[in-house]
Amino acid sequence: MIGSETALARCHDLVELARKMGADQADAVARASSSESVGVRLGALEEVERSESEEIGLRVFVGRRSASISTSDFAPEGLQMLAGRAVEMARLAPEDAYGGLAPADALFAGDGVDLDLTDGAEPSPEELREAALAAEDAARAIAGVTNSNGGSASSSRSVFALVTSSGFARGHSGGSHTLSASVVAGEGGDKQTDYAYRTQRHRCDLPDPADIGREAGERTVRKVGPGSIPSRKMPVVFDPRVGGGVLGHLLGAMAAPSIARKASFLIGRENEQLFDSTIKIVEEPHRLRGLRSRNYDGEGVASTPRALVEDGRIFGWLSNVSSAAQLELGLTGHASRGGGGSPGVAASNVFMEAGAPSVAELIADIEDGLFVTDLFGQGVNLVTGDYSRGASGFRIRNGELADPVSEITIAGTLPDMFRALIPANDLELVRGVDVPTFRIDGMAVAGQ
User: Cα–Cα distance between 404 and 401 in angstroms, integer?
Assistant: First the structure.
């Protein structure tokens, strides 16, 4: 796989080609990745995969017109053809009053933070196989597990480079290591499946494979024999594994492109107290070894640590160049970039701060409620804030987790859910978007 210096050189060359062919502005983004994974099932090797990919994307501006194009052909004649085609496409495109590059005075400068995003480790297929086997073996050893979907271990590396004609040129490398296991419990028509996984930048930060396996096995076994639940309003408690999705809906509604399209339920609520005043949601782009850590965004603008929600209120909108121009906002360092096309918007490492009560204390006064461990379906409307998802988990009776339940629907509106949210004290920073266990009273639950 290429290094960041080679990726930067390719981006420089492509931007220069585009300028020579008539582009007023241009930027190029290069991505490369390699990964190796090993999967096992029932103690036997099932698959060994290795993949590598390289891609470069070019975006050009001719006046107020723009076009984007990408390729995996890095031959000089191929890149020259790419640049020429992009400029021709831009000349035929409609004018965009808001497109453009980030201005020079907004670009990230200096050395930045050493984010420690790769350990350089390349475990052998044998090492990956042993880790996958250990995870699956531990899962299968849990009493009640009847079959296995398998265990897996993988390692990957990536390179990113961005060059703009406005003066930005940076590249960086990253890596990740993943362990997972998935098993089956129950017999006949009452088979249940679940999983556990963990991804870390450094292999030494992964849990022991046996811990991953045990978690997968225990999660699966406790789901066997599910019942239903009466249909009515009741307290609903979200496991952190699914609770992060609720935070993700907030981030999606805070995206400035959604605001510009008038496609967010947060429009007009910028100064409203959406959460309890004790709730704080924080973004940490400079977290060492963070899964979403970065010094700069997909347009070269510095990423800044900030509170996204404080005193119950949002800080504002997450912008890129186009949406900031359309809404007359400042740049917040939230542009995201794929291999080609225009930038989108994405936050980096985000978490909701832990609350005071333990999980046991959080549910202690719930006479009848629902503890959600799995969510299904896409019934969330970010334009209206309506929320409706299929769910399974456990019934809460007299302050304790009781029988497993499934085939349930939970519903509400995101503003109402935010106002009622109470976090527990069990926050772990393991996913990139993290929350503690949290409780929301008064949700509509539809069961039997």
Answer: 9
DSSP E strands in 239-385: the ranges are 281-283, 306-310, 313-314, 335-336, 344-345, 350-352, 368-376
Report the 10 Å Cβ neighbour count for 280: 17
Residue 382 burial (CB count, 10 A): 18
CA 414 centroid distance within chain: 19
Contact 233, 445 (CB under 8 A): yes
Give Dmax (Cα) for the chain: 73
Q: Which residues contact 138 (CB under 8 A, 6 or more apart)?
A: 181, 209, 210, 211, 212, 213, 214, 217
* pLDDT reading at 448 higher than 80: no
Name the one residue in this structure whose structure tokens are 């096992």. 40
Question: For residues 72 and 149, what is the distance between their CA atoms, to the nearest angstrom?
Answer: 35
pLDDT of residue 135: 98
Delimiting residues of CATH 3.30.2290.10 domain(s) in the chain: 4-220
Mean pLDDT along residues 151-162: 97
Cα 345 to Cα 400: distance, rounded to the nearest angstrom: 41
Check pLDDT > 90 for residue 2.
no
d(CA 91, CA 284): 40
- CATH class name, domain 4-220: alpha beta
Q: What is the rounded distance in angstroms from the CA atom of residue 11 to the CA atom of residue 29?
A: 6
At 166-207, the pLDDT tens digits run 999 999 999 999 999 999 999 888 899 999 999 999 999 999
Which sign, positive or negative, has the C-alpha torsion 426, 176, 50, 162? positive
**How far, in Å, CA of 163 to CA of 408, rounded?**
49
Strand 232-238 versus strand 368-376 pairing type: parallel
Distances (CA, A) of 99 to 60, 94, 96, 320, 402: 10, 11, 6, 10, 55
